[in-house]
Amino acid sequence: MQNLYGVESIHDAFVKIIATVKFINTVCFSVLNAIVFLIRFFIIYVRGGALVMKVMIIVDVTFMSHDMG
User: Which residues cross the membrane (predicted)?
Assistant: First the structure.
């Protein structure tokens, strides 16, 4: 490896750049997925608001009663 140091360092640089680009793409994709999920959840929440509210109220009441003891 060390006798081809110049070639190896250029190769390493390319590998690092590609790895960085892949990492950035993965992060951006994850963020986009999260945004899409939130938008979908919001649309479902608006369309089925009554059902969601009932569930949330039930959850709130059960957690409140548990907190109160």
Answer: 23-46
Tell me: the pLDDT tens digits for 5-55? 556 788 888 899 999 999 999 998 999 888 988 888 887 777 776 777 777
Largest CA distance in the chain: 73
**Per the structure, how many domains does the chain have?**
1
Q: What are the b/e assignments for 13-41, b being 16+ CB within 10 Å?
A: eeeeeeeeeeeeeeeeeeeeeeeeeeeee
User: Which residues, at least 6 apart from 62, have a Cβ–Cβ distance to it below 8 Å?
Assistant: none
How many whole angstroms separate alpha carbon 62 and alpha carbon 45? 21
Domain that holds residue 35: 2-68
Q: Which of 56, 54, 25, 52 is nearest to 41 (CA)?
A: 52
